[in-house]
Amino acid sequence: MRVFSHTCSNTEIVSALGAASCLIGCDDDSDFPVDVVAAIPKLGRDLDLRVDEVIAMRPDLVLTSLTVPGHERIVDAIEAAGIRTLVCDPLSLEDIYGDISRIAEALGIPERGAQLIAEMRAAMPSRANRNGPKVLIEWWPKPVITPTRQAWATDLIELAGGQNPWASIQAKSTPLTDEQVLASPPDVIAMSWCGVKVANYRADVVSRRPGWAAVPAVRNQQIVAISEEFLGRPGPRVVEGYRQLRAAIEATAR
After folding, report:
1. Which of 117, 131, 171, 249 is most open to solvent, judged by the fewest CB atoms within 10 Å of its CB?
2. 135-138 and 188-191 strand pairing
3. Domains of the chain, earliest start first
4. Residue 66 clears pLDDT 90, i.e. is over it
């Protein structure tokens, strides 16, 4: 089967399923596994995907998503060419498992999908704790944007034993004011800035915000950097996001 992947998470899912040899191309943001993406053409990112070139490659299947506003027009253009698409738009961790299962089914390897899901579940045992420390994940630093109820990152926080103070908000994410953060001061702050390399995350950007010196995470130096590769991509590497969140949560008890 000839597969084109339009999102990095889908590229990683196909590879984790042991089907990387099916990939004939991917989007510019796909950067893992390094050896896999280095060997195939990259045809643009997000809304700038060069659809005509994708169609010219004559894929049997295009894996894409609706995680970026406007992706619908990319999907429509590919489907109009008569090419089969599989669209992912996960909100929860269970949705990620569902997408892995659907992709595995489409590739004709459903048993590998079931195995990968079982391995991920086993690697992320529930440490749920209603009294666990409050965790703020920052998707973006200015304004601070955090995941809310309809986000797999909230599921990861809770699974790792923490609480998301903004989990009651029925949305994928929300911007936060300083006042909102100070009203529910987090014990852990995880910088996971989308589109920024983890080497460029800076704790001082967080700690110098007006009034934040009183926030427990700042006061106790519990500001951690967790790459958006692990918290922002709905694929197999959320397991590493869980592990790093768990380590940060455990550190608050020391």
Report:
1. 131
2. parallel
3. 3-123 (3.40.50.1980), 135-251 (3.40.50.1980)
4. no
